[in-house]
C-alpha cells in the first residue's frame, strides 16, 4: 500500500465511523437486506430440507458471492482517489454497525435496569437465539453482554480490519461471508453440510480480527484477568473465534458470562467465561462502552500510524 493509499484508507475508516455515529443503519434499501433475500432464494433452490451435500453448499456459496465480489473488485480497481475513499467510506459504513449494536444492547439494558424483566426478555430475544422467556435477570444481562462482545468483533472490528487489508473487496467479502454464516451456519440436519463452506470461510476470515478484538478488550479493561480468561477459557468454547473474544471481554469486565443457557431444544451446557459477579444491566452498558472505546483506540492508532508514515516519507 502506498503512503497516499494508507492515508485515504485511514480517512475512510474515520468517515465511516462518523457516518455510523450520525446516521446509524439505513432504515430502507440496505444492501444486506437485498443480499439476504437473494441468499434465501438460492438456498431454497439448492438445499434439500432433509439434508444436503457440501458440494451443493459450495455451489450456493459461489453463486451468491461471485457477482458482488467482482463488482467490488472492479470498483476498487477503476475508481480514482479521492472518489475511491468516498465510496470505500460508504461501503464500510454500510458493512459495520456500531450504533446499531449499541442501540440493540441499550434496548435490553434500559428495561432491565428499570425492573421490567418481560420487556428486557422481549428485546434480548431480538438479538440472540436462546429461549428468552426462560431467562432470569442475570441470564438476560449475560445474553445481551455476550452479544455486544461477539458482534463487536464480527460487525465492527472485522469490518475495519478487512477494509484496511483488502479495501472494498475485502470488507464486501467479509460481510457477505459473515451473513452467510449467520443464515446457513447452523449445526442441524438442514444446514450441517450445506452451510459448512460458509462456516469454515467465516472462521478463517475472522481468526485474526477476533484475536485483535480480544487484545483490544484486554487492553481497555482488567488486562491481567482478561488475558488469563482468554488463554484458559477461550479455547474450550465451541467457536474458535467467539471463545477468545467473549472470554477476554468477560475478563476485561470482571464478570461471569457463559454457562448453561436455554434454547428451543433444551439447556445447552456451555463453559463459564470470565470471573466475578453475575452480570446485570450495568454489564450490558459496560460491554457497549468497551466496544466503543475499542473503536476509538483503533482509529487513534491508525491516525498515528498514518501521520508517522507521512512524516517518514517527508524526511526521505
From TrEMBL:
Chief localization: membrane
Pathway(s) of this molecule: Cofactor biosynthesis; adenosylcobalamin biosynthesis
InterPro entries xrefs: Cobalamin_biosynth_CobD/CbiB
Topological relation to the membrane, as annotated: Multi-pass membrane protein
Compartment annotation: Cell membrane
Record's keyword annotation contains Membrane: yes
Assigned keywords, A-Z: Cell membrane, Cobalamin biosynthesis, Membrane, Transmembrane, Transmembrane helix
Biological process according to GO: cobalamin biosynthetic process
Annotated TM spans: 58-79, 155-173, 295-315
One of the record's GO molecular function terms: ABC-type vitamin B12 transporter activity
Gene Ontology cellular component annotations, sorted alphabetically: plasma membrane
Function statement: Converts cobyric acid to cobinamide by the addition of aminopropanol on the F carboxylic group.
Similarity comment: Belongs to the CobD/CbiB family.
Name this polypeptide is given: Cobalamin biosynthesis protein CobD
UniProt source species: Marinobacter zhejiangensis
Lineage: Bacteria, Pseudomonadati, Pseudomonadota, Gammaproteobacteria, Pseudomonadales
Amino acid at each position: 500500500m502506498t503512503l497516499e493509499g494508507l492515508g485515504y484508507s485511514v480517512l475512510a475508516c474515520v468517515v465511516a465511523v462518523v457516518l455510523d455515529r450520525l446516521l446509524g443503519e439505513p432504515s430502507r434499501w440496505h444492501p444486506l437486506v437485498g443480499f439476504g433475500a437473494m441468499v434465501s432464494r438460492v438456498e431454497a433452490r439448492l438445499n434439500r430440507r432433509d439434508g444436503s451435500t457440501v458440494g451443493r453448499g459450495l455451489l450456493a456459496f459461489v453463486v451468491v458471492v461471485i457477482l458482488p465480489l467482482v463488482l467490488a473488485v472492479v470498483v476498487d480497481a477503476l475508481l480514482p482517489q479521492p472518489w475511491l475513499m468516498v465510496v470505500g467510506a460508504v461501503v464500510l459504513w454500510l458493512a459495520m454497525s456500531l450504533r446499531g449494536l449499541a442501540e440493540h444492547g441499550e434496548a435490553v439494558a434500559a428495561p432491565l435496569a428499570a425492573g421490567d424483566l418481560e420487556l428486557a426478555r422481549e428485546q434480548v430475544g431480538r438479538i440472540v437465539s436462546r429461549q428468552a422467556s426462560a431467562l432470569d435477570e442475570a441470564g438476560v444481562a449475560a445474553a445481551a453482554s455476550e452479544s455486544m462482545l461477539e458482534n463487536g468483533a464480527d460487525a465492527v472490528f472485522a469490518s475495519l480490519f478487512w477494509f484496511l487489508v483488502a479495501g472494498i473487496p475485502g470488507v464486501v467479502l467479509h460481510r457477505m461471508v459473515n451473513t452467510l454464516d449467520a443464515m446457513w451456519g447452523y449445526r442441524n440436519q438442514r444446514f450441517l453440510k450445506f452451510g459448512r463452506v460458509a462456516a469454515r470461510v467465516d472462521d478463517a476470515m475472522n481468526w485474526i480480527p477476533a484475536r485483535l478484538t480480544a487484545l483490544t478488550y484486554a487492553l481497555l479493561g482488567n488486562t491481567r484477568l482478561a488475558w488469563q480468561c482468554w488463554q484458559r477459557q477461550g479455547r474450550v468454547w465451541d467457536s474458535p473465534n467467539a471463545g477468545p473474544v467473549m472470554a477476554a471481554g468477560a475478563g476485561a469486565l470482571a464478570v461471569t458470562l457463559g454457562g448453561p443457557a436455554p434454547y428451543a431444544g433444551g439447556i445447552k451446557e456451555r463453559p463459564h467465561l470470565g470471573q466475578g459477579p453475575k452480570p446485570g444491566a450495568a454489564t450490558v452498558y459496560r460491554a457497549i462502552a468497551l466496544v466503543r472505546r475499542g473503536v476509538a483506540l483503533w482509529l487513534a492508532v491508525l491516525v498515528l500510524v498514518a501521520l508517522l508514515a507521512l512524516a517518514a516519507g517527508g524526511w526521505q
